[in-house]
Design a protein that fits this description.
Strand order of the largest sheet: 1-2
Radius of gyration: 27 Å
Strand content: under 5%
Bound molecules: zinc ion
Keywords: Membrane, Transmembrane, Transmembrane helix
Helix content: 40-55%
Distance between the termini: 59 Å
Protein name: HNH nuclease
Order of helices and strands: HHHHHHHEEHH
InterPro entries: HNH, HNH_nuc
Transmembrane segments: 6-24
Domain HNH nuclease: 125-178
Length: 204
């Protein structure tokens, strides 16, 4: 059988039309299908959280029932709330920290480390030392921090005999600082950066 020219041309046109869909299938898939696919959303959130908060062991099995019983849009928000809840519930033990080599300390360091009635005026200098010693990571969740997005933490409170020695100082991200100083941390979900950044990134 010899194929007619018409047949060959129309086949070529059809193939030319279909081919781009095949070549760009991944992009098209991502745009029109995956966009509304909850497992893709969970996958993205998992990567994001593990990368950003390396010291938190998020339990993703707890979101299965959320997915089963909610619509796509509701489920996404509930998942972000659940992850934030787990972040709040993370147990935190204050431990004595490493000292700073004596040769790096200044003459009045020892004297100024003993708390008086007011906070020492070189607290920012101490914070700079602590953030470097702790590799710019939050002591509780492991998030990367900068000097202006972090808070100094006293391991042992002053009223319990704590001092400003480096062994008694560590550093926290703003979220962890809010959590450990809150009387009702479970109510903080919507005030925390972790939740609001994920909302901006994945929902809005
Ligand atoms: Zn933190």
């Amino acid at each position: 059988m010899i194929l007619g020219l018409d047949y060959i041309i129309s086949s070529a046109i059809i193939i030319a039309f279909i081919l781009p869909f095949y070549i760009y299938r991944k992009k098209i898939f991502k745009k029109y299908y995956v966009k509304n696919n909850i497992s893709y959303f969970v996958h993205e959130v998992t990567i994001y959280l593990k990368d950003k908060y390396p010291k938190v062991n998020f339990d993703f099995s707890r979101i299965n029932s959320i997915i089963r019983t909610n619509s796509y849009d509701q489920a996404r928000i509930l998942i972000l709330e659940e992850m934030t809840k787990q972040f709040i519930e993370l147990a935190f033990e204050k431990r004595t920290q490493k000292n700073i080599p004596k040769e790096l300390l200044w003459a009045s360091y020892e004297k100024e480390s003993i708390p008086k009635n007011s906070t020492p005026n070189n607290l920012l200098r101490r914070k700079n030392f602590v953030i470097k010693r702790d590799n710019y990571k939050c002591n509780r969740c492991g998030k990367s921090i900068k000097i202006d997005t972090s808070m100094l933490l006293l391991i042992k409170d002053l009223d319990q005999g704590g001092t400003y020695h480096f062994e008694n100082l560590s550093i926290l991200c703003n979220d962890c600082n809010k959590i450990i100083n809150s009387q009702a941390p479970e109510k903080l979900i919507k005030d925390l950066n972790i939740f609001n950044s994920m909302m901006r990134r994945y929902i809005k």
